[in-house]
Structures are given as C-alpha cells and as structure tokens.
From TrEMBL, chain A:
GO biological process: proteolysis
Annotated protein name in UniProt: Peptidase M42 family protein
Keywords carried by this UniProt record: Aminopeptidase, Hydrolase, Metal-binding, Protease
Positions contributing to Zn(2+) 1 binding: 63, 165, 217
GO molecular function: aminopeptidase activity; metal ion binding
Binding site for Zn(2+) 2: 165, 195, 303
InterPro entries: Peptidase_M42 (IPR008007), Peptidase_M42_aminopept (IPR051464), Peptidase_M42_dom2 (IPR023367)
Organism: Thermoanaerobacter pseudethanolicus (strain ATCC 33223 / 39E) (Clostridium thermohydrosulfuricum)
Reported cofactor(s): a divalent metal cation
Active site: 194
The UniProt record lists the keyword Protease: yes
TrEMBL record, chain B:
Any single biological process term in GO: proteolysis
Family according to the record: Belongs to the peptidase M42 family.
Transmembrane segments: none
Name of the protein this chain belongs to: Cellulase
Superkingdom classification of source: Bacteria
Cofactor(s) demanded: a divalent metal cation
Annotated InterPro entries: Peptidase_M42, Peptidase_M42_aminopept, Peptidase_M42_dom2
UniProt cross-references to Gene3D superfamilies, sorted A to Z: Peptidase M42, domain 2, Zn peptidases
Positions annotated as active site in the UniProt record: 198
Gene Ontology molecular function, alphabetical: aminopeptidase activity; cellulase activity; metal ion binding
Length: 327, 340
C-alpha cells in the first residue's frame, strides 16, 4: 500500500477550527462521494457517508475540526484579542502565524511581561498588519476564527504538519471507505467540534444508533527525551485504545481488535492515555450504550503546529480499520 | 411592572414552584397548551399556521441562592451556595429563610474582633452564618429545617430613568422577554420552555428539549456585563445600552457562525442594535439543548446585566425592549433567512 501524500497534505493544511469545519468537509466530500450510497449532514454539521449493507450497523468517527483561536475584540490600533478554541498551549503560541477563513494571515504577539509565568491568553494578540481598527475590520471581525499555520513536511518515514489531529484519522477513514468490501452497513461520520468537548459525535451516534462504533483519532507517545511515561511509540503500529479519560474500552472490543491485528499480521500496540478523550467517549454512552473502540495513530507533539506521525503507523491503522469493518 | 413582579419572586434552583405558577398564570391566555414536565420545566406552546419548523425558546426560571446545611447550638444557621454565589458579597446582607420567608442577616465577626489576616481575605462560607434572632438550636429549629432555601432579600427599583436594579435579573429578564414573545402570533409553532435548575448545571433544559424536540432553539439569558470603570477593554464581555448580546462561544457551546451572520443581517436590516458576547467563559441552557437527541441548531441572545448572581443586578430597559424585538424578528425570518 502506498499513502496518498498529496491528499494528506491537503487535508492537514486546510482551515478548520471547531465550528468552521466546512472547508475540510468539502475536500472529504469530493474524495468520497463516488464511494458512498448517501451523504447527509445533521443539525450540528457532521457529514455522514453511508455505505449500505445487510450486516451489522457500524459507525466510524473521525473528527474534522482542529484547535484554533476566535477573535473577541479589535483594538483601536488594529490588534486582535482572542480566546482559544480547544486545548491550545497558550505559551507555545507566541510568534506563531495564524490564518483566517478568508486567507488573511497574522502573527501572535505578546504584551511586555516581566515574568514568563504571566503568559495568558489575555496578554496575547494577533497582528494582521492592520494600521488601525477600521483597516482590521475590513478583513476580520469579532467571532471570526483562526487556525494555526504549520506547513507540511515529509521527512523519510515521518510526516510533520499542523492538524494531524485528526485529519490523519480522516485520511485513514477515507482510504478505508474507498476500498471497503463488506456486507456490513457502515456509516463514516466526519464529525465536528471534537476539540471543544467531543460534541458532534454524540448527535451522530444518536441518529445512526449503530451496533458498534470505532473512533479514529491520534494519541500521544512516550518515545521522546524525558517524555511522560507512555507505552506508545512512533513506528510501532496502530494503537488499540485500552482507556483514556473518556472511555474504558470494553475488553471484548479490545480483544476483537487485537485478534484481527494478530491474524492479519498488522503491527499494533496498546494505548493507555492518561489525559484527553475521543469521540468514542460520548458515542459509547449514547442512548442505552453503544459498544465502541478506538484506533489511534501515534502522534508526537499533539496540539502543536508540528505534529509528527509515521507512515507505517498510518498504513497499519488503515489495514486494521478495514479488517475490523469487514469482520 | 412585570419585571418587578418576576424578579421579586423568590425561587432558587430546585424550588421554582412560585415563579412557575406566576408565569403560568400570565401566559395561559396567550398559548394553546401548557404543561409541566417531570423536571419541573414549564412548557407553553402555541400553534402556527404551519406545522414546521418547530421553534423552542428557553429562559430559566431559577435564581442562585443559599441553603441551610446545619443549625448551630447558638441558634445560627450554616449554609451552602445553590449555584455560583460569590462569597465576598454576602456579609451583612438581609435574607429570607424557608417557605415562611423568615428574616435573617448574614453575620460575621465585626472588624473589631478580626485578626489582621482575617481582614485581608474575604470571608469564606465557613466563617459566615445566618442570624435569625434565635438563641438556641431548639428555637431555630421551630422556624427552619435543614435544606430550607435562603433567598436574597432585595427589591426591584428604577435607577435614573432608564435602568433597573433587582436580584435575579439572570434570568427573570429572559423569562419576561419570552412572555412578551408569547403574546405575538407566528406562522410557525413555538414552544417556550421556562426551565429549571440552570444555575446548578443546565439540568432542566436538556429534558425540555428532549420532550419538545424542536427544529431550532433560541435561548434568552441575562448575561454578564462588565462595562464598569476598571475593566480592560478587551476583556469586557458585554455593555449596557448596546443592545442584545449574541453568543459566539462559551464553555458549553460553539454557536453556528453561519446562523449568527444571518441574525446580524436581520438585526442590521431592521435597525435593532446588537453586540456580541465577547468572552468564552460561562454557559447557558444552549449547552444542553444543542446536544439533545440528534442535535438541535441553537442560538443564544442575552440582555446584558451588571453584577449578576448578586443581591442587586442592573439592566438597561432599552436593551430589554431590543431583545424582545430581535427574538421576534428571528422567529419571523426563520424560513426567509434559512436559519435551519
């Protein structure tokens, strides 16, 4: 299998902070429309691609949104004050470039601070180069959201970009969707608003009410210098989730995934994430409960502008998801 | 003035009976159907000429307050907050306790007896007590029970010509907006949910939305205004006199930008002033409503109020009138502007 690097690049580089996922959804729609029996959108904006079948009803969730910033105030001098969307490491944002939906770009600056500990969102601003408020308002208004810039780099087996969380999950879902051969009825849901509290997935799960669900998302690793202890490494295969803050995956789901990986010689590792959650959290608690599991793509520097994944892990995740859905 | 009656009623979270009955008696002539659901939400519906889209409007009836948690040997009462109450605003205020609304004063050591370090930090709940004039536990228990609600004792007044001060503007002012809206006739079916237990975690609204199952929802709130002298401009949430505040994002919801843009257009075309709610903290019933069942498109429009969650909050009457206008226009334009 070879990865479609151009598509991965396009997915990660597209603008899509939580609440503004439409550009990402358009790209995905163009890719998958010929492979879906039906494409619908729900009230929250999730895009659902249905592949009809007579077997089990399965839902796959990959979130399309990324973390970002929202403008809350425009200063007379043209600087933009903002609030964060999702889990932004505020102290890492200084000097970063951001981009708005209309393509306007800016850089994040900070007030003079005597102590680095004072770095808080309210001390930062975005400078789009406007000379005053009037000029700024020609391009940007209160309520507009910005995404971080973080270019795509291919470096041997490794890929670096912003927003692998979770465009790489979207990519995995797209590849599986295109090549799937199963009797099961599969709903590929490209969800919204995961980063602000896994909000989109629950609504989709309610409407679809599947027998089983798989979320595809990124997870952290413990393979960097003096990292927080975590038994997940880049390049060691697809990660099968055991638990995180939003779900303890049912042992039967976990074992089923492990068996499939072993049977088909798909490299895998087990994942215990001590922080964060995924769409599987709200999905498994929908209605009377829905069995759910997670396939995670190991990712370094999650929520930075330079997230890093390994191509082999992406391939393994595609293989594993495909086999799980075909079971 | 209806706002005076609504704000002076004492009904904290979980204890909405009195305000519910008041609102029910007011709106009954204007609606086709009224019921109270199992959580205590008051649901009032009006048919339209069409069957769809069905619109739910929500304002919460409950207010923040306090609750008796123990009766002390000396006849004083210890208490806990119900909802988000700033302990720094409590000392020396008068309150009403329990169903009988007996008088009480929130007491604390006077300045003469305080140690230096005690003077330098606000009194916490454990250092405050309520004095109801009882001299023993036994005597106090004749008048109050554990679990009794304690209400802020504060009257509605007009400030200057255009401002009002009252307790519980959050969210009786929203209830008042929706009572006015219920007097209008619409092409579409509308249900107003006067919800319970918002202040303790948006508990009523989700249940209401589950039962009503609307196509679109509008939450009307009394929200935090911070246009006071020491505010840093970029941290001001909303300002009095600038019109209804449209929510962009808070802790519980990200509001659909495409819908917000259309509401802005409606406001501008009809010359109704508006502002955005420009902070991301806090939350309201929209947080629960928009995630109900398969998801419900939901917006929030608020009347800016200073000093909310205290004994005296302040609102600007023209903001109230403009909120009524804007909500009315949103309902009327729901199909024309394709808000759903």
């Amino acid at each position: 299998m070879s990865l479609n690097i151009e598509l991965i690049k396009k997915l990660t580089q597209t603008y899509g902070p939580s609440g503004n996922e439409d550009k990402v959804l358009e790209i995905i729609k163009a890719e998958v429309k010929d492979f879906c029996d039906d494409i619908t959108y729900d009230a929250l904006g999730n895009m659902i691609c249905k592949k009809a079948g007579k077997g089990k009803k399965i839902m796959v969730a990959a979130h399309t949104d990324e973390i970002g910033l929202m403008v809350t105030h425009i200063e007379d001098e043209g600087f933009l004050r903002f609030t964060t969307i999702g889990g932004v490491f505020v102290e890492q944002t200084i000097g970063r470039r951001v981009i708005f939906k209309n393509g306007v770009q800016g850089v994040i600056g900070v007030e003079h601070l005597e102590d680095k500990k004072e770095i808080k969102t309210e001390k930062l601003y975005i400078d789009i180069g406007a000379k005053n408020k009037e000029e700024a308002q020609k391009y940007v208004n209160i309520g507009d959201s910005a995404a971080f810039a973080g270019e795509f780099i291919e470096s041997g087996d490794r890929l670096i970009s912003k927003a692998f969380d979770d465009r790489i999950g979207c990519y995995v879902a797209i590849e599986v969707l295109k090549n799937l051969k199963t009797k099961n009825e599969v709903y590929f849901v490209f969800t919204v608003q995961e980063e602000v509290g896994t909000r989109g997935a629950a609504a989709a799960a309610y409407n679809i009410h599947p027998d089983f669900a798989v979320a595809v998302d990124v997870t952290s690793t413990g393979d960097t210098p003096k990292a927080k202890k975590m038994a997940v490494s880049l390049g060691k295969g697809a990660a099968i989730k055991v638990m995180d803050r939003s779900i303890i995956v049912s042992p039967s789901v976990r074992e089923m995934m492990i068996e499939i990986a072993q049977k088909h010689n798909i490299p895998y590792q087990l994942e215990i994430l001590e922080f964060g959650g995924t769409d599987a959290g709200p999905i498994h608690l929908t209605k009377g409960g829905i069995p759910a599991g997670v396939i995670s793509i190991p990712t370094r520097y999650v929520h930075s502008v330079s997230e890093m994944v390994d191509k082999n892990d992406v391939e393994a995740s595609i293989e594993l998801l495909k086999k799980v859905l075909e079971k | 003035m209806l706002l005076k009656e609504l704000t002076e009623i004492m009904s904290a979270s979980g204890d909405e009976k009195e305000i519910r009955e008041k609102i029910k008696s007011i709106v009954e002539p204007y609606v086709d159907n009224v019921y109270v659901d199992k959580m205590g939400n008051l649901i009032t519906c009006k048919k339209g000429k069409k069957d769809k889209p069905k619109i739910m409007l929500a304002a919460h009836m409950d207010e923040v307050g306090l609750m008796v948690k123990s009766v002390n040997e000396d006849g004083t009462l210890s208490f806990s907050p119900v909802g988000g109450v700033d302990n720094r605003i409590l000392v020396s205020k008068t309150v009403k306790v329990g169903e009988k609304k007996i008088n009480g004063v929130i007491g604390a050591k006077p300045i003469h007896l305080q140690k230096r370090e005690e003077q330098q930090r606000p009194l916490d709940y454990d250092s405050l007590y309520i004095d109801i004039g009882a001299t023993s536990k036994e005597e106090a228990l004749k008048h109050v029970s554990l679990g009794d609600y304690i209400y802020f004792d504060s009257n509605f007044e007009i400030l200057g010509n255009d401002y009002v001060k009252a307790k519980a503007l959050d969210d009786r002012i929203g209830c008042n907006v929706l009572i006015e809206v219920l007097k209008n006739e619409y092409e579409y079916p509308i249900c107003v949910a006067f919800t319970v237990q918002e202040e303790v975690g948006l508990r009523g609204a989700g249940v209401a939305a589950y039962n009503v199952e609307p196509d679109f929802a509008i939450v009307v709130e009394g929200t935090v205004a911070a246009d006071v002298s020491d505010s840093v401009p970029h941290l001001v949430s909303t300002e009095l006199g600038k019109g209804p505040a449209i929510s962009l994002m808070d802790r519980t919801a990200l509001y659909d930008k495409k819908v917000i843009d259309k509401i802005v257009k409606i406001a501008e075309e009809n010359k109704v002033p508006y502002q955005f709610r420009r902070i991301a903290s806090g939350g309201n019933d929209a947080g629960k409503i928009h995630l109900t069942k398969g998801g419900i498109k939901t917006i929030a429009v608020s009347v800016p109020c200073r000093y909310i969650h205290s004994f005296n909050s302040v609102a600007f009457l023209e903001d109230f009138n403009n909120t009524v206008k804007l909500v009315d226009l949103i309902i009327k334009n729901i199909e024309k502007e394709a808000l759903i």
